[in-house]
Amino acid sequence: MSDAVTSFKRTLCDHISAHDRAGATLAALDAVRAGAITIPELYDLLAAYLVEVGARWQAGESEVWEEHYATSTVRTIVEACQPLVAERAAAPIGRTVVLATPPDEYHDLGLRMLADRFTLAGWTAQLLGANVPTDELIAAIAELEADAVVISAYTHFHRFALKEYVNTVRAAHPDIHVWVGGAAFALEHDGWPDEMMLKPADVPSLAGQVG
Q: Same domain, yes or no, for 173 and 155?
């Protein structure tokens, strides 16, 4: 991590710790505009920060509302970056990806950041968000003429349920390219092929995998 990114992380954490949502958001936007940090670097930092916040809560070192506040602030920052993502997007590559989480899965912030990474790489990223019924995802893939779909799971419970979700989508769209990711796959992905695992850093190279 460069000195500029390290300094920015410290500034960002200070703002969030002080419950200064506006200050955190402005600091992020200023850093990106100044070239001190790229949007993918910012998103990597924000994702790592949320992992740290979650670990502190699990250790009993912070309250639930503090974790929720941090997550809400990160979401505000990501949404505020939307115009910058549009400005920095690569030329369109003629590929469309649909992003969703399965029914009863409400954690979609990581998926939101992933959609921006696809946009930056020249994809048309269609974010459906959380808790998407199977038939609705199938319909969206057809209507949006998607080349690929990304499905995210946060817990091992949802990872188990994801199997049926993916199989049903593939039965309806045999040619669709499916990637999965999320916290449920952070430690291992037993039972899932390597080629289905999606890491954010891989997004710029994914177009070549889609026929």
A: yes
